[in-house]
Design brief:
By secondary structure, the chain is mainly beta. The chain has one domain: Pnp Oxidase, Chain A (Roll), CATH 2.30.110. The strands form three sheets. A seven-stranded antiparallel sheet has the order 3-2-6-9-10-5-4. It has a three-stranded antiparallel sheet with strand order 1-11-12, with no helix packed on it. The longest helix has 9 residues.
């Protein structure tokens, strides 16, 4: 396969061909306000110790809370199930109160845990790393919860499901 030169549009197109799970990262800041946004740039980083990472765009509203500064030291990663596309869209768009009318409980970190998610991973921020137009936030896993179901996926600019 011939390689092409890289430009932002080509790079975005290539990355869009990599299917990823869909999460909503949630935080309760030190003033007790809830924040959340849809994130597909999520990954496990280590089994021992248990670490995950999320990449937060510097232009995103969540960046000022989780990606920089000391306004939040804990967060939750809500892994969405195949029936939660509406939640993914809601938390991906600018919305004055993304949590209005959304069912959730409080996790051990105080972060909102969205109802009916496939899985939830709660974390303590271990480190933050500058990465171009994003900040990589590495979290030490301090708690998890699991439900039955299929994951919601993001592929080539749209949502998809996986049936097994």
């Amino acid at each position: 396969m011939p390689l092409s030169t890289i430009d932002p549009a080509t790079f975005r197109s290539v990355l869009g061909r990599f299917a990823s799970g869909v999460t909503v990262v949630t935080v309760r800041d030190v003033q007790h306000y809830d924040h959340g946004m849809t994130v597909t740039a999520f990954s496990s980083a280590s089994l021992e110790p248990p670490l995950v990472l999320v990449c937060i765009g510097k232009a995103a509203s969540l960046h000022g809370v989780l990606g920089s500064g000391n306004t939040a030291s804990q967060f939750a990663v809500n892994i969405l199930n195949s029936k939660q596309e509406a939640l993914a869209r809601r938390f991906a768009e600018e919305h004055p109160d993304r949590f209005e009318g959304v069912g959730f409980t409080r996790g051990i970190t105080g972060a909102p845990i969205l109802d009916d998610c496939l899985d939830v991973i709660e974390c303590e921020v271990q480190s933050r790393h500058d990465a171009g137009d994003h900040t990589i936030v590495v979290g030490t896993v301090i708690g998890t919860a699991t439900n039955e179901g299929s994951p919601l996926l993001y592929y080539r600019g749209g949502y998809a499901t996986l049936e097994r």
